[in-house]
Design a protein that fits this description.
The chain is mostly beta strands. It is built from two helices and 16 strands. It binds zinc ion (ZN) (2 copies).
Amino acid sequence: MTTICDTGKDYKLSSPYYAEATTFETKPGCWNYNKVNIIERESKNIIGSYTRNYSNMYRTFHPFKLKNKWFALYSPNYTATRIMSLPDCKDIGGEEPNSFGFCPTDYFVPVLANLQFVHDSGCPRSDGDMRKPPCTCDAGHLTGCPLSVPNPKIMPNGGYDWESCICKESRAAWDEAHFVWSFPERVHRFIAGCIWGDDSSWKIQYLDLSQADKGIIKRDDRFGYIELPSELNLDNAIDLDYDDDYISLKIATQNYYNINGKIQE
Ligand SMILES: [Zn+2]
Ligand SMILES: [Zn+2]
């Protein structure tokens, strides 16, 4: 059986690499392994491969960009998470296989996107000081536009009649000059998986990728013992809001009740 593992998608562009896993038989009575090819999306070329010693690939190949270089989280030994540099497909470090290790089934490295407003140099608030007189960077509408002041065209519902605007092009250029996206390093990563004997559901943990380029990852359960809903992938279960250096999360988790409302122990 061949499965495509195409995770790590950016919301603006897909990562340039994905994996294709094909199961193969090992010894009789033993579970199958997977031969995993790493494929460069554009050329469709196979640029590397590895063996995963488990029958299910899950979503265990996840490319991400850090410090302007591409890497991937992957799991050749099913009890551990490793880091590979791309496109050379070299293993650069990570967790050591361990019978009490965290067996990954899914990875998610969210894109951090920050939209900043850039003031004109003459604007009183160009230094970002909100106590200064109001911002003078208003795009305004061209003279003759039905939305220009002092009598902008208002719809019966009280809103502006944006359809009538004749300066959409100049306003788009203004937006582009004043709203600038920045993409901070994607050092926050989430992992779902299980520890042996606790494999009836996938648990969500956190992984610190700030030193992933040196082959170092740190995993912890800072959110407590939380289960990933069985129908969701990690990227559907985690909603991340980013504002300057503050990150807030909404995490969908699986909880258990009986009809009387009590959580089952
Ligand atoms: Zn301004
Ligand atoms: Zn206009």
